[in-house]
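Board work, copied verbatim: Response regulator
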Amino acid sequence: MSRINSHQKFVFVADDDEDDRLLFLDAVTDLDMPIAVKLAEDGQQLLDELNTALIQLPEIIFLDINMPGKNGFDCLKEIRTAQKNFHDVRVVMLSTSSSPLNIDLSYQLGADFYAIKPGSFEDLKNLLRKIFEIDWINFKKDEKKFLLA
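↓ predict structure ↓
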């Protein structure tokens, strides 16, 4: 990944599926927004990168749930209880699972949103556009609006 400009949003994606990571990257590129993306192959790689970040933390972390080693729930729990201040980092669970149990657990553990991975490239772009256009400064977490469609 190239150097991150101060006017760019910086997001991190943790997903064990290489195709999903590349699709995410392609969708962000197509949106033509000032967004830098860093990719992690699993939860442990994400946590290692976050814990060694010296300059800039991501604004948003997109977390898959089902990953080997540290899954998305384990990562979310560590991010929300970390010694390092990740309070301002937003977390979006991005998963194929539509299980109400997974959605509820994500909310309880401190995710900001839960989104089911869209079935088409256009739908993924629309979802990401919607997330990137959120006014995070005035954002208030709302259980009724937690699941993004």
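The two ends are 29 Å apart (CA to CA).
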